[in-house]
Design goal:
The complex is a heterodimer.
Chain A: H1 8-33, E1 38-40, E2 44-48, H2 52-55, E3 62-72, E4 76-83, H3 84-95, H4 106-131, E5 135-137, E6 141-146, H5 147-159, E7 164-173, E8 181-190, H6 192-201
Antiparallel strand pairs in A: 1-7, 2-7, 3-4, 3-5, 3-6, 4-8, 7-8
Chain B: E1 2-4, E2 9-14, E3 18-24, E4 28-34, E5 39-45, H1 63-77, E6 85-90, H2 100-103, H3 106-121, E7 125-130, E8 136-141, E9 146-151, E10 158-159
Parallel strand pairs in B: 1-3, 6-7
Antiparallel strand pairs in B: 2-5, 3-8, 4-5, 4-6, 8-9, 9-10
The chains are: A alpha+beta, B alpha+beta.
Amino acid sequence: MPFRELNNVQMDILTEISNIGMGHAATALSQMIGHPVHLRVPHITVTDISQVPDYLGGAEKMTVGITLQILGDARGNIMLLFPQESAHRLLGELLGEQSKALIMNEVTISTLKEVGNILASAYLSALGNMLHKTLIPSVPLLAYDMAGAVVDYVLIDLSKSSDLAMLVETDFTGEPSSDLAIKGHFFLLPDPSTLEIFLAAAGGQQ
Amino acid sequence: MTEHIRIAEASIDRAPSVLKAYGLGSCVAVGLYDPGTGFGGLGHMLLPDRPDDSPVGSESKYVDAGIRQIVNDLVRAGANRDMLVAKVTGGANMFETSYQTLINSVGARNAKSARRTLDLLGIPIVGEEVGGNRGRTVEFDLATGNMLVYCAHTAEPVSL
């Protein structure tokens, strides 16, 4: 089903599913960091694929992308995107040391992949529980480059069947006292048949 | 004047315009240029081949169809078909892959499709910077036919 056919009710359902999934992911991430983190999905955007880089702050913005495949009863891809500064801050929180700039090495890469793994696993397990489906994430892959370059791989996959992409924007917020301002984008890219499974299971038929 | 060519777009213009495509990963950018008239075009394409039946979206989404569209538009605008030269960049593989088969470099297939299409059209490729695992930003200067390729992790652009 192309995304353009989604009605408001279905968009609300997907937003709600994502909020619940992100709630679980937040719990997992909070335990990892050692203090509370809230993940909120303010809205889901459906946009033309050529506009996607603009939503990520511009095609040239340096971005960390972590991608996983969805395996099990449903198929699709997940991509997590962190702007350079957010990835830097996240690493500072997790590794407890603040380098001056974002450095990519074995430790930082595997830490960020692990964050991707935790978020995706928690999200998929919540989603799966709700829909009575088994959803398993694959091994994460990572790239650190211009946003346009990082994201075009998922767009390519998507563009075979559609000209539109669905973006689940996710805000990360810490305690009010902390200056943890981490922003991320979460792409949920269900295969067209999988999207129908999600909506049917969530009771979103027209 | 600088024109921004987004994903799945292609456009033509004439000297002294500059055509730019930002943040190419697996996508390829193909620049076509007629040095005689200063007409040139740039496409930012993401899939290798346009399927024969029920293709989704615009011509400029596909490497083969996009190149043909640019050539046709250039000829219609007044460029000399026989003088056209091409420059190709992009086609990277951004993610180190453990499940190669699934994302087995669409980038490489895009670059291959560009070469094949240009070969079929008899348009020589005079500059090429493809592959690897880095993103690229392309600046195609129609005043000179010069193509600059910038990478995020290196300071100096490559000139094609």
